[in-house]
Automatic annotation (TrEMBL):
Sequence ranges of Low complexity compositional bias: 111-129, 144-160
Phylogenetic placement of the source organism: Eukaryota, Fungi, Dikarya, Basidiomycota, Agaricomycotina
GO function terms (MF aspect): GTP binding; GTP cyclohydrolase II activity
Gene designation: rib1
UniProt-listed Enzyme Commission number(s): 3.5.4.25
Name this protein carries in UniProt: GTP cyclohydrolase II
Organism: Vanrija pseudolonga
Length: 588
């Protein structure tokens, strides 16, 4: 049986140790000008071709070097590859041209290591270790005598990290001489193996979601204050529900890359702009459109997504015009007197769910909800409906979802628009590791809430500050005092409504999310006769019938006993604002 390698014991790659004849052939090919010398392998192949035909000789890659590619490699990689080897170890790419046949032959610079000689490095490591050991002796002495450690002593080692956390220098082999003693070799081996703590201890320690076994124990520091967000890039992505603009955000509260999936067809289609009410504003990121530095080029702006309209092959693209905060504030406060009645953008705050979205888990309906959210946002909307139906209390909000509610066809239909804010809050904020552990407790009969509590988590650990700032950056926060702007929120979760409202987002309406399986119950008395379905429902039915699969984008319904239990727990224990269907259901 092959030995299981721990990350710390995995071998590091050394070119010399793993060079095969094929490697040497390639190296030869890359580093030699003119005709290639025949190697044993190529000579054999040439003399005895397998198919009786003579093999073509390998063509040199002499295309002009792409300066962008080179700078990307230089900026992004610290690894030395055979390609680098072919151009010398000096790091000077000016030597590239010397390998081209058209260049005059010049003597190639000798490979020169950028490291200090090994003896010097060993000496430095040894000194660092001695210094760290001396330091820890002082620290433990100080701890035992309850005396503060002197600043001088604690700063005497440049490589010593915080107490208990070994730094790379203290983990390094002490020195050439020391490491040869059996004790040192044993110690060195121990440091390279996996953590020797017993499994039960590890399980306990790995319990809180913030602990990463390989990277050490983290601290739970709940960020305070209002987060700042910045859209780092956006791009157009075609989806089964039409083209969207994917925005990637950074923020000051966590190191996650949260996303905004913006559906705004007027930015991309002349037809949608014509059909949209006059005065409709584009949903754009203010931080992305801002000027990031003096003298930034149009190409920089376009590459990060700060452009208007659509990019097309061969064209240059039209960069967006940066605007000041004051200009945005004036626009938010003003009202275009010619603007026609429009419907506010539909927004869903969606939490990441690897299991439901990516592998189609039927324990939850997250994949379906993501798909349904994007579908609902993109579909045409009736202007003037349901604007005043929002009632924030669970009881009062148990109105049927718009999907089951007959629309008045006197209302004009306009292109849909809105955003799915995709928050990297896997497992309602506890992370994938903990969610997987919770699933095992659920298989033992506990519901989702209890499973979380048993692992020492809250039932729901999500916060909505970052999502609110993303909405604000997209110009969708609205203003309660002015009674203007804001969003319609697609959710059954009262905490989302309250959380976003507390962050200053104006929510004019809550739109319910009904599980597709409940919505499409063909055997219920109400839906048994297809003639009772109105046009929109029929359209939806056909839409469903075209789809196959579960949970993935553009797919159909999710169903199963585990999902039923999950949904019931949300309603009965977490106050989700949706009614469990009363009629007995059979599979559609
Ligand atoms: N801890 C835990 N998280 C889960 C479980 N199943 C799904 N999730 C997570 O729950 C999140 C989705 O939240 P939901 O409560 O389904 O939906 P919601 O977004 O709060 O509410 P709606 O807006 O009405 O859909 C995702 O992050 C999922 O990974 C589970 O069994 N345990």
């Amino acid at each position: 049986m092959p030995a299981v390698m721990s990350p710390s014991s995995a071998p590091t790659t050394h070119h010399s140790a793993y060079a095969t004849q094929a490697d040497l052939d390639i190296l030869n090919l890359l580093t030699t000008d003119g005709p290639k010398p025949a190697t044993a392998a190529t000579a054999a192949a040439a003399s005895a071709p397998a198919n009786g035909q003579r093999k073509k000789s390998v063509v040199r890659r002499d295309a002009g070097l792409d300066s962008l590619l080179l700078s990307a490699v230089l900026a992004g990689s610290d690894k030395i590859t055979r390609h680098h080897f072919g151009h010398g170890m000096t790091g000077a790419y000016s030597t590239c041209d010397q390998s081209r046949p058209s260049s005059p032959r010049q003597p190639r610079p000798l490979p020169r290591s950028q490291q200090a000689p090994r003896s010097q490095r060993l000496q430095a490591e040894s000194a660092a270790l001695a210094s760290a050991q001396a330091n820890s002796a002082i620290v433990s002495e100080a701890a035992s005598s309850s005396k503060p450690v002197s600043a001088e002593a604690s700063s005497s080692s440049s490589s010593a990290g915080p107490i208990g956390i070994p730094t790379p220098a203290t983990l390094a082999p002490p020195s050439h001489d020391l490491a040869t003693s059996p004790k040192e070799l044993k110690e060195r081996k121990r440091r390279m193996s996996v953590d020797p703590q017993p499994i039960s201890q590890l399980l306990q320690q790995a319990s809180p979601a913030h602990v990463n076994f390989f990277h050490g124990r983290g601290q739970v520091v709940k960020p305070t204050g209002r987060p700042t967000v910045k859209c780092m890039a956006r791009t157009r992505v075609p989806t089964p529900h039409g083209d969207i603009f994917l925005h990637l955000y950074h923020n000051t509260h966590d190191n996650k890359e949260h996303l905004a999936i913006v559906t705004d067809p007027i930015q991309l289609s002349a037809d949608a702009r014509r059909r949209a009410p006059k005065g409709r504003r584009e949903i754009r990121s203010r931080s992305l459109d801002a000027k990031w530095r003096e003298g930034e080029t149009d190409m920089e702006r376009i590459v990060r997504g700060a452009y208007v309209g659509r990019l097309t092959a061969g064209a240059e693209g039209v960069p967006s015009v940066p605007r000041s905060a004051a200009e945005y504030a004036a626009e938010d406060a003003s009202e275009d007197p010619d603007a026609e009645a429009d419907i506010l953008p539909l927004v869903r705050i969606h939490s990441e769910c690897f299991t439901g979205e990516t592998i189609g888990s039927m324990r939850c309906d997250c994949g379906e909800q993501l798909d349904e959210g994007m579908r609902r946002i993109a579909e045409d909307q009736h202007v003037g409906t349901a604007q005043d139906e929002y009632l924030p209390t669970p009881e009062a909000s148990r109105a049927p979802s718009p999907g089951t509610r007959g629309h008045s066809h006197s209302h004009p239909r306009v292109p849909g628009r809105g955003v799915v804010i995709y928050m990297r809050q896997e497992g309602r904020g506890i992370g994938l590791l903990e969610k997987i552990r919770a699933y095992n407790l659920q298989d033992l009969g506990h519901d989702t809430v209890n499973a979380n509590l048993m692992l020492g988590h809250g039932a729901d650990e999500r916060t909505y500050g970052v999502a609110a700032e993303i909405l604000r950056d997209l110009g969708l926060a609205g203003d309660e005092a002015l009674g203007r702007g804001g969003v319609r929120l697609l959710t059954n979760n009262p905490e989302k409504v309250e959380g976003l409202a507390a962050e200053g987002i104006r929510i004019t309406e809550r739109v319910g999310m009904v599980p597709r399986d409940w919505l499409c119950n063909h055997n219920s008395p109400k839906r048994s006769a297809r003639e009772l379905l109105d046009d929109e429902e029929l359209e939806y039915d056909e839409y469903r019938a075209r789809r196959a699969g579960v949970g993935l984008l553009g797919a159909t319904t999710t169903r199963g006993p585990e999902l039923e239990k999950y949904l019931r727990t949300k309603i009965e224990r977490m106050g989700h604002m949706i009614d469990i269907p009363e009629e007995p259901k059979a599979d559609a």
